Amino acid sequence: MRRALDTSIGRTYRSATGTRRKSSVLAAAIGAVTLGAAGQAPAQPEPPHFEATVLERVEPRNGFRDYGYRVWSMADDGTVYGSVYDQRGHTKAIKSKFGEGTTWLLPRDPGQIELRPIAASVSGVVLLFAFSWPQNYIYVPGHGGRQLNNLHPDLFFPYDMNNEHTLVGQVAPQPNNRAVTYRHDSGFDFLHDPESAALAVNDAGSVVGHLDSGFGWITIRIWHANGGVTTFKLPRSTTTPIGSVTINGRDEVVGIHRREDSQNDSRWGGWFWSERSGLVEIPFLREDTSEDASIYGIDDNGWVLGKEEIDHEPQWYLWHVDAGFFNLGDLYEWQGRFPRPGDFTGPAAVNAVGQIAIPNRIIDTGRDVVVFLNPVK
Prior knowledge:
5-stranded mixed beta sheet; 4-stranded antiparallel beta sheet; single chain; mainly beta
């Protein structure tokens, strides 16, 4: 494994105009940079800029309204998939797209089982994870939902799907879990045994997963589409959540892990891996706080969407291994009446082309809407 140099923590952040401004809230934390063969750092990429639009809200029906809006995934065509709940606590999956409005994903779904649309293809096929029930479904437009648990004699837990409709996850025979991929035309392919899980897949077919080393440290493994395998351990870590690991089209991987050390008091922090940089721990915006960081994904240009709570205020950012942090609030143009960036709630989603969807709380009404950020350059 090729490691990156040590990270350095600053106290400023780079604004959208390229100047460096003092900020006591969003501090600079420029990640480590691996020098090229000539000893020069890679060229610093410019951050994307966005137009911001509020997606149309779901029409009230049978007690369901647009509060409790959660974003779970976004297809590469900009279709946003999420869920809303009613006053009884029932939850229904929905999809939204700019210019097309918001509709129920499964019109006949009574909402008694929370189905989270955790992955979707550009053709509208959606992978739904049953959060409170041991059932998982795949939704195909025009054909409805199909339960996935009966595909294998043991329990099959899918965690991601690409645009080629390859599913990745784990099969859970007792006592060992095994990382697998699944395609409808070729069936299951077991990647590793024992105690492993395949967590994410890109369109080329590269898969990232984790292995249990038996000592409480999580080992990350990437099965590259070209047949190569990369394995590394997360430093100072005891766990990494299944839903936090993402791989982009360049086989760059991000996730979060619990950093077990005295300085950070076991905070959740982000990490990044690429073939060029090796493993980089994404710095915290501030070290003098006990708040955790959240990582929501990475686009195909290497920009990572994240958030950290600073003094009980959410600070949203883009981070790049060669450029550091950029305040998300400096990178979009408001259109119409919008709340301030601090009202973004979460969770959020970013797709391969860099589009971002974030729930936003309207303070006056208590309702949630989704702000759609579309890169314009």
